[in-house]
Amino acid sequence: MSDRLIHTRNIGIMAHIDAGKTTTTERILYYTGVNYRLGEVHEGTAAMDWMPQEQERGITITSAATTVFWDYDDQKYKINIIDTPGHVDFTVEVERSLRILDGGVVVFCAVGGVEPQSETVWRQADKYNVPRVCYVNKMDRMGSDFFRVVEEIKTKLNAKPLVLQIPIGEELAFVGVVDLIENKAFVWDEESNGVEYEEYEIPTELIDTVNEYRAKLIEAVAELDEELMDKYFIDADSITADEIRRTIRKATIDLKIFPVICGSSFKNKGVQAILDAVVNYLPCPLDVPAIYGTDFNDKKVLVEPDENAPFSALAFKVQTDPFVGRLVFFRVYSGKFVAGSQFLNVNTGKKERMSKILQMHANKQNPLNEILAGDIAAGVGFKDIRTGDTLCDPSRQILLENITFPEPVVQIAVEAKKQEDVEKLNIALAKMAEEDPTFVVSFDNETGQTIISGMGELHLDIILDRLLREQNIDCSKGRPQVAYKETITNSVIHREVYKKQTGGHGKFADIEFEISAADDYKSGLQFVDETKGGVIPSQYIPAIEKGFKSAMQNGVLLGYPVYGIKVRLLDGSFHEVDSDALAFEIAAGIAFRAACRLAGPVILEPIMKVEVVSPSEYIGDISGDLHQRRAQVTRMDSRGDLQILHANAPLAEMFGYISALRNISSGRGTFSMEFSHYSVPPRNIMEEVIYKIKGYKVDF
Question: Secondary structure of 196-239 in the HEC alphabet?
Answer without folding.
Answer: CEEEECCCHHHHHHHHHHHHHHHHHHHHCCHHHHHHHHHHHHHC
